[in-house]
Amino acid sequence: MRTLRMYPSSINERYLDEVADCLRAGGIIIYPTDTLYAVGCDALNNGAIERLCRIKGVNPQKQTLSVVCDGISMASEYARIDNEAFRILRRNLPGAFTFILPAATSLPKVFKGRKEVGIRVPDNQIAMAIAARLGHPILSSSLKVDDEVPEFDAQELALAFEGQAELLIDDGGDGESLSGGMPLPSTVVDLTDSRSPEIIREGKGELQ
């Protein structure tokens, strides 16, 4: 696995191109977010999605899949966002949230027949820059390995996922996940009925 050192305050454009090219080719990446490190692939590449789900040991037909976008505008192409949902997203994003929204028909066939999609716009310049350079969302899942492999330690993650992912983006400790204390996952909010949002997992984000 190739490791790229990239800093949120000074993103390497050449590395960013390499990451986007890897994703377009069906590759798997490990990258920092505003919570835990995440494993991701091109959200429009069915083969890559199936591969990522095998790595995570999840059934894509039974589990809500989440995508990382560079902003609400990109998210609106892949989820149905009504006026009230838009107001909630605008107040809270970018931020440490996964919002469950009605899925749009523009998602690939692995999403067909699914009514929901998780939307993430993390408050992390690297994650948003990757999605922007790719031009569409990253299918993403937080990394929870085991008690022996901290999900905020890039070197340990590189060893744990050797042979499974092509690239690891190491933020050099500048990421939010290394800011002290045990890292928290995103707060998950069900917005399928935007008039009565429901927090279904408490995490780092505090809903406004």
Keywords:
single chain, 208 residues, alpha/beta, DHBP synthase, 21% strand, DHBP_synth_RibB-like_a/b_dom, Threonylcarbamoyl-AMP synthase, SUA5_domain, Sua5-like_dom, double-stranded RNA binding
Fold and architecture overview:
The chain is of the alpha/beta class and 208 residues long. Helix content is 26%, strand content 21%. It has 6 helices and 10 strands, in the order βαββαβααββαβαβββ. A 10-stranded mixed beta sheet has the order 1-8-2-3-7-4-6-5-9-10, sandwiched between helices. The radius of gyration is 16 Å and the shape is globular.
Strand runs, count: 10
Distance between the termini: 39 Å
Helix tally equals: 6
Spans of at least 5 consecutive residues whose pLDDT stays below 50 are 174-180
- Portion in beta strands: 15-25%
What is the count of structural domains? 1
What is the CATH architecture descriptor? Alpha-Beta Complex
Mean pLDDT over the full residue set: 87
Q: What is the structural class? A: alpha/beta
Q: Strand count, sense and closure of the main sheet?
A: 10 strands, mixed
CATH superfamily: DHBP synthase
Radius of gyration (CA) equals 16 Å
Protein name: Threonylcarbamoyl-AMP synthase
GO molecular function: double-stranded RNA binding
Domain YrdC-like: 13-205
